[in-house]
């Protein structure tokens, strides 16, 4: 038994019928061997075919990947490219309301300009005051007199020399030599204001002595911060300029037992404390010295 059909009469401008036939032919919607505008209308109505703005629908996984790419581009100072991806997400992504609102807010904020402003301040050797919101939601102020954009692990960060040291000394009282050095994320900067004063031109730093053993003695790849790299028997000794021990310690954990912090004692002891806390977390007994 044949399905009943309803008649639909359309009034369209001249040339529209031909364009509909072209679209139907492109998508293989035919009546016999001829393109079928009626079949095209049915396919659109039954949501079997998406045209125009809806032609591309991004999955949740694709949206997440593009969001991550946007953050990396912003960190790298490629603001225009980040804007292009954000616009694509807003136009094509099937986004939940909170995420769509966050993207719209991000487009309206100046957060994407922080990297370009920082680059300009650094090029002009211009001290500045920065308002920053940390991971705990606290709003803090820092007076910056030297800064570099540095790549740590998988993203770019703002490494600075700043006047404020109270909280750094509270967390690491045994490392006063580098208490002025701080590391910040671009997406947490709230504002930047140039100030008068002297641009330092460098960070405070520590010389850290590392010993690489076993396979790492040969496999170790020199870093830009290394100032000495010598083989002593079965050990490779590397002396490195360190401005932020946080990143060094993360690196050493990845090397495991084949890398040892030999000196200074302040950095060695900090690593040992973190290692002991990890052992305590897993209920491992402390080894007698």
Structure, briefly:
By secondary structure, this protein is α+β, with helices and mostly antiparallel strands. It is built from ten helices and eleven strands.
Describe what you observe in this structure.
There is one protein chain. The model has no long low-confidence stretch (mean pLDDT 82). This protein is α+β, with helices and mostly antiparallel strands and 289 residues long. The protein contains 10 helices and 11 strands. It holds the Pfam family WCX. This is WYL domain-containing protein. It comes from Geitlerinema calcuttense NRMC-F 0142. InterPro entries: CBASS_pafABC_assoc_protein, WCX_dom.
As residue ranges, the low-confidence spans are none
The biggest sheet, with number of strands, parallel, antiparallel or mixed sense and barrel status, is: 5 strands, antiparallel
Report the principal-axis shape. elongated
Number of domains: 4
CATH class of the largest domain: Mainly Beta
**What is the SS-derived class?**
alpha+beta
DSSP, total strands: 11
Output the CATH topology of the largest domain.
SH3 type barrels
Helix content: 25-40%
| Radius of gyration from CA coordinates | 29 Å
Strand content: 15-25%
Spell the H/E element sequence: HEEHHHHHEEEHEEEHEEHEH
CATH architecture of the largest domain: Roll
Span from first to last CA? Answer: 91 Å
Helix tally equals: 10
- Mean pLDDT value: 82
Strand order of the largest sheet: 6-5-4-3-7
Layout: helices, strands, pairs:
Elements (H helix, E strand, L loop, with lengths): L15 H11 L3 E2 L2 E2 L1 H9 L14 H16 L3 H14 L4 H12 L5 H10 L4 E6 L5 E14 L2 E8 L3 H6 L9 E4 L4 E6 L11 E7 L3 H4 L6 E7 L2 E8 L2 H11 L3 E5 L1 H17 L8
Antiparallel strand pairs: 1-2, 3-4, 3-7, 4-5, 5-6, 8-10, 8-11, 9-10
């Amino acid at each position: 038994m044949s399905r009943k059909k309803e008649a639909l009469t359309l009034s369209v401008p001249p040339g529209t019928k031909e364009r509909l036939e072209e679209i139907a032919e492109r998508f293989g919607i035919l009546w016999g061997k001829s393109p079928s505008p009626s079949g095209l209308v049915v396919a659109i109505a039954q949501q079997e075919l998406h045209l125009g703005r809806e032609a591309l629908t991004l999955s949740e996984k694709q949206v997440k990947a593009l969001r991550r790419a946007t953050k990396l581009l912003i960190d790298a100072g490629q603001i225009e490219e980040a804007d292009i991806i954000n616009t694509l997400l807003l136009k094509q992504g099937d986004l939940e309301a909170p995420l769509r609102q966050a993207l719209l807010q991000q487009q309206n904020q100046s957060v994407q300009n922080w990297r370009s402003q920082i680059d300009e301040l650094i090029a002009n050797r211009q001290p500045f005051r920065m308002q920053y919101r940390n991971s705990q939601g606290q709003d803090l102020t820092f007076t910056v007199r030297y800064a570099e954009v540095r790549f740590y692990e998988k993203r770019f960060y703002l490494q600075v020399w700043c006047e404020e040291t109270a909280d750094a000394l509270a967390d690491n009282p045994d490392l006063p030599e580098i208490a002025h050095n701080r590391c910040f994320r671009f997406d947490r900067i709230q504002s930047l204001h140039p100030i008068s004063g002297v641009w330092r031109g460098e960070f405070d730093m520590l010389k850290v002595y590392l010993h690489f053993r076993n396979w790492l003695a040969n496999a170790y790849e020199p870093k830009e911060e290394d100032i000495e790299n010598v083989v002593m028997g079965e050990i490779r000794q590397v002396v490195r300029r360190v401005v932020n021990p946080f990143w060094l310690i993360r690196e050493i954990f990845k090397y495991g037992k084949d890398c040892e912090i030999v000196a200074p004692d302040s950095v060695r002891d900090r690593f040992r404390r973190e290692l002991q806390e990890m052992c305590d977390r897993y209920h491992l007994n402390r080894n007698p010295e």
